[in-house]
Amino acid sequence: MGFISADSKTKLSAERLNGYEKALIDNGFKIDKEKIFLQNYTIESGYQGTMALLMQTEIDGIYCGNDLIAIGAIKALKEKNIKIPEEVKIIGFDDISISQYIDPPLTTIKQPIYQMGEEAVEMLISMIEEKSIKMTKVLETILVERGSS
């Protein structure tokens, strides 16, 4: 399983990389740095990262740091006549609106954006009112299964 995302300088990117590595270890796999491509959150990075992974190593799946990266990965795989999901599975992150309309429709991880906004406003109000608050709150994500996995 390959991983394409933004460089791990930001907390968000570092957390996604850590999650990928933890999932590998938890499922009995070793971390292979050749299967990790870090650049930025763009379609171009997904395309370039997929081409780089295909030249360096064998992969049967790619976890992408966001849906734009996944769209670039799908383009690269199609150019190489690699069947999705039969030969390589693709999973994105964010569930942007176009994800359901690309071919194949993208399997992705959806965050509860509305709930995140509500929680942020509640925290802000508590801070303004000088109440004691917990600054970190973990919200559940949802796997949206579509045709790319």
Would you spell out the secondary-structure blueprint of this structure?
Elements: E1 2-6, H1 11-26, E2 36-39, H2 43-56, E3 61-64, H3 67-79, E4 89-93, E5 107-110, H4 113-128, E6 142-144
Parallel strand pairs: 1-2, 1-3, 3-4, 4-5
Antiparallel strand pairs: 5-6
Helix pairs in contact: 2-3
Q: Can you walk through the features of this model?
A:
By secondary structure, the chain is an alpha/beta fold. It is 40% helix and 17% strand. The chain has one domain (2-111): Rossmann fold (3-Layer(aba) Sandwich). Helix 2 crosses helix 3. It is elongated, with a radius of gyration of 17 Å. The relative contact order is 0.14.
Note the main attributes of this structure.
single chain, 149 residues, alpha/beta, Rossmann fold, 4 helices
Say how many strands there are.
6
Cα(first) to Cα(last) distance is: 12 Å
Major sheet characteristics = 6 strands, mixed
At the third CATH level, what is the topology name?
A: Rossmann fold
Residue stretches low in confidence (pLDDT < 50, at least 5 long) are none
Query: What's the CATH H-level superfamily name?
Result: Response regulator
**Outline type:** elongated
Domains (count): 1
Q: Class by helix and strand content?
A: alpha/beta
Strand content: 15-25%
So what's the CATH class?
A: Alpha Beta
Number of helices: 4
Question: Order of SSEs, N→C?
Answer: EHEHEHEEHE
Sheet with the most strands: spatial strand order: 2-1-3-4-5-6
Shape-level CATH architecture: 3-Layer(aba) Sandwich
